[in-house]
Amino acid sequence: MAETTEPVTMDKIVSLCRRRGFVFPSSEIYGGIGSTYDYGHYGVLAKNNIRSLWFQAMVQERDDIVALDSAVILNPRVWEASGHVSGFTDPLIDCRTCKLRFRADKLEDGRCGRKPSKRPGEFSECDLTEPRQFNLMFETHVGALEDASSLAYLRPETAQGIFVNFKNVLQLARRRPPFGIAQVGKSFRNEITPGNFLFRMREFEQMEMEYFVPPAEAEQWFHYWVDARYRWYTDLGVRESHLRRREHEASERSHYSSATTDLEYLYPIGWSELEGIANRGEYDLTQHTQHSGARLEYVGEGGERYTPHVIEPAVSIDRILLAFLVDGYDEEIVAERERTVLRLHPRVAPVKAAILPLIGKNAEMVEKARALQQELRRRHVVEYDDGGAIGRRYRRQDEIGTPFAFTIDEQTLEDETVTVRDRDSLAQERLPIGGVRAWLDDALERDWKSPKSE
Ligand code: ATP
Question: Is 177 helix (H, G, I), strand (E, B) or coil?
C-alpha cells in the first residue's frame, strides 16, 4: 500500500519540530542563543508524557523508590565534594586562525571554520592550541555581593541533590537498601561543542535515579537496571534495531565508576548515548561524608553499618524525545500523495485523538463533535479541528503523531456512529459514539509496536 522513504535526517526532524511548533530556537528574535531551545505546545505535551511514563515506571509502580525535587543552586561545597569543581571538565582546543573552539576528544564532530576542510586541523592554515581543561559548570552569584564568597553554580546534574538528601530520605521514608531516590529537573552545562539539536543542549531536563544497595549486591542491581531501562524503551515501541547497550571501556569511565553501560540510539548523527547506567560504588556518599561531616551510611537494626553502593540510570527528556521523534518519523506515498507521519507510541503522542466534523460548516456535526470533545478531554489531550478539507486535517494530525481520529459525518446524524481512523494502518471502522470514550481508554492501554521496518 505504502512506500517508505528513508533516511531520517536531523534536518527533517528540526524542520518538522519547527513547522508544527514542537521546538523553537530560544530567543530567536534576538538571533537565538547557542544550543538552547524553547518547547512549544506539542513539545510540552510530549515531554509531559515522557516525564510521567518515566515516573510511573521508576516510582509509582514500585515500593522501593521515592521522589525528590531538590534545588538547582546548592551550597557550592556540594560541587567541591562531588569532584565537579576540579574535574567536571572537557578538554578544549582553540583555533588561533578561525577563533573557534572544539572538544579535543570529539574533534571528529567539530566543524572547521574554513572551507573546503571539514574537520578542525584539516585546513592548511588551521592553528590549533594544545588542549586545556574547561569546566562545564555555569557560575552565578548568590546575594548582592559578587565576590568569591558568593560564587555558586547551576547544577550540572540532578544526582548530587539526591546524595545530599540521603539521610533525610533514609530516616523519613523509612527505607533500607536496596531503595532509590528519583528526581527530574533542569540541569545546565556550558557544553563546548553543543549542537545536534536536542541531543546536546546547554540547558536540559534530566531524569535520574540513585539506587542505594548493599555493596555485595551492586553488580547484580547494575545488570538489573541496564535491562529494566532497555525494556522501558522497547515497551514504548523503540525499534530494537536502533537501540543497543554499550559497555564503557575502563579508560572511558568516570573516576568514581566501576562499570558503566550506555544505552545508545542510532540517531542521524550515528550511534550515540541516549541514557547512561553507572555503578558509582560508594564514591558519592563517602565524598559527602568526608566533606560535610554528616555520616551518610546505613545503620541496620542490629547495629551493622555500611556505606551503600549506588547504581544510577541517568537520562534527559530531551534526548529521549529526540530518539522517539527519529524512531517515529516516516514519509510514505499513499494514493500518490506523500504523507509525513510521526509513528509515536500512543502513550507518548502529544495528542491522543482528533475530533473532526466532516463538514465544518454543518451545525449538527459541529455540535456532536464538540460534545464528544468535551467528554474525551476530561481524561485525555484531544484536539478538535473543523478547518479545511478532511484529508488535510488528517495529515496535520499525522505529522504530530495523533494515533486516532474520530470523524463525525452524515451517518453519525442518522445512526449515532462515528468513524475511527488509525494513524499507522489508515484503517477506518465505525463505532457507536457512546462507546468512543471506553474504546479510546482501551486503545491507549494496548501494546504498540512500530510498523516501521526493522
Ligand atoms: P556526553 O558524553 O554525551 O556528553 P555524558 O556522559 O556527559 O554525555 P552524563 O553526565 O552521563 O552524560 O548525563 C546523563 C544523561 O543526561 C545523558 O545520558 C543524556 O541523556 C543527558 N545529557 C547529558 N548532557 C546533555 C546535554 N548537553 N543535552 C541533553 N541531554 C544531556
Answer: coil
Cα–chain center distance at 48: 10
What is the pLDDT, as a whole number, of residue 340? Answer: 97
What gap in Å lies between CA 100 and CA 338, rounded to an integer? 41
Which among 404, 410, 330 has a CA at the least distance from the CA of 368?
Answer: 410
Q: What is the pTM of this model?
A: 0.94
Give the chain's radius of gyration (CA, Å).
25
Secondary structure (DSSP) of 393-410: HHHHHHHHT--EEEEE-H
Cα 145–185–103 angle (5° rounding)?
75
Q: What's the rounded Cα separation, in Å, for the pair 338 and 199?
A: 28
Specify the pLDDT at position 1: 40
Instruction: Report whether residue 280 contacts ligand 1, using a CB cutoff of 6 Å.
Output: no
H helices present in 66-165, as ranges: 77-81, 84-87, 159-163
For 130-269, strand residue ranges (E) read 132-135, 139-141, 151-153, 179-188, 203-213, 243-247, 259-267
Cell of 273: 548515548
Count of C-beta atoms within a 10 Å radius of residue 265? 25
Q: What is the pLDDT of residue 453?
A: 64
DSSP string for 10-79: HHHHHHHHHHTTSEEETTGGGT--TT-EEE-HHHHHHHHHHHHHHHIIIIIT-SSEEEE---SB--THHH
Give the separation between CA 298 and CA 371, rounded to whole angstroms. 57
Contacts 24+ apart (CB under 8 A), 426-432: 426/1, 426/334, 431/406
Q: What is the mean pLDDT of each run of 10 residues along the chain (454 residues)?
A: 66 97 95 94 98 98 97 97 94 88 83 75 86 94 85 97 96 90 98 86 97 98 98 97 95 82 97 97 98 96 95 98 98 90 98 98 98 98 96 97 98 98 97 98 96 75
Nearest atom, ligand 1, residue 320 CA = 20
Verify whether ligand 1 is closer than 6 Å to residue 206 (CB atom): yes
Predicted confidence at residue 454, as pLDDT, reads 59
- Res 192: pLDDT: 84
Residue pair 420/443 in contact (Cβ under 8 Å)? The answer is no
Atom of ligand 1 nearest to the CA of 90: 4
Q: Is the CB of 204 under 6 A from ligand 1?
A: yes
CB 452 within 8 A of CB 401: no
Q: Is-cis flag, bond preceding 116, omega within 30?
A: yes
In angstroms, rounded to a whole number, what is the distance separating the alpha carbons of residues 38 and 205? Answer: 12
Cα 424 to ligand 1 centre (Å): 32
What is d(CA 248, CA 256) in angstroms, rounded to the nearest whole number? 13
